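Title: Prediction job returns without error message
Component: structure pipeline
Severity: low
Priority: P3
Assignee: unassigned

Description:
Job completed but the reporter wants confirmation the result is attached to the right record. Sequence as submitted:
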Amino acid sequence: MKPYPLENTGSFESPLGEVKAGFPSPADDFREKLDLLKLLVRHNASTFFFRVDGVSMVDADMDEGDIIIVDRAVEPYSGCKAVCFIDGEYTLKRVEMTGGSAVLMPCNAHHAKYRPIPIGPDNDFLIWGVVTWVIKKA
């Protein structure tokens, strides 16, 4: 697991145009500015970037090679996608919490090899950070 911390606290602004998904419009009179860091990062000091390695989360729209933005300041919740530490290894899974227990759920219905991982009292377990954004290459 290699996180990419946010090093530049400056901003990256670019004009934000609008593109119609229907009929084209020649109107381009108003351009809004888009600051990607302000849009994607809520907590600079606790936000990290990772490249997804593997296919256990494809049904959650996290494909191999995608970049995920993970925020350690976000409180984990049932159903969140998160980077988790379990028994010496890091993994990306959907976290299902009920009562005092948790189950790490893969999101790939096409491969039976990916099975839920129940968390028990003997596991060394930590929800390291919650996924807040997925960046995909077209």
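Comment from assignee: result matches the submitted record. The longest strand covers residues 125-135.
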